[in-house]
Amino acid sequence: MLRHDFARGIAGITHTKSELVVKVRRVAEDESPVSLPTGMGLGLFLVSVPVLLQAPLVRFLPWVSLAMMLPLYLGASWMLRQPKWRWWGDLLLGFGWSWLAGTVYWGWLRFEPLWHLPIEAIGLPFALWALWKRRFLVGQCFYLGSLLGTVVTDVYFYCLDLIPYWRRLMTAEVQDSLPILRAAGELVKTELGFLWALGLLTLLFSVATIALRTRALHWWVFAGAVIGTLLVDALFGASALL
Known about the structure:
The protein is mainly α. The protein has one domain. Helix 5 runs parallel beside helix 8, helix 8 runs parallel beside helix 12 and helix 11 runs antiparallel to helix 12.
């Protein structure tokens, strides 16, 4: 009986210690050096401004864009081991998935739209594992927000049958791209194009609003990434309509 009680006591201490380690890890990951609005702003910035810089790079120097992944992940790995920089390393890790997917697709596979979503979802298994384990929440929520915006954009392209214009645009010379954009813009201007845009925009804004109602920084970063994707899409959509 004494031995049994002793074994139960040891098991209880071990279980309590494990719970304490998990709680300490979660608290450490939830600590951040930025406010909620700043976190949203960072999500918006990282999903929009770097895209504008990456676009010409992957078109003409895709290997350079791919090589940039090495210092990016080395930097994220170093930051994750530093308590002061852990939050930034977490965010950089999630940003790395978006940069890698954009490099691979727009650098070598952009001529086939069907490959777009599978390549963009390259980090999805890791992101879902991280959410399940409550690890790397900031970076993975950023990546998921960016991915959600990408999925909705592609759905819009498929619903309006814009995929043929996508293929033509990827193979056209620069001087021939404007007529293709204008032809695609004519479909966007239709009533069907407006209704699909309104519905999908409402969906994304609803998701972002739900995320912003929480007090969790990683969901504010997620919302920023979703809104940033909308801004990028609006920019390219405006170029097609002008």
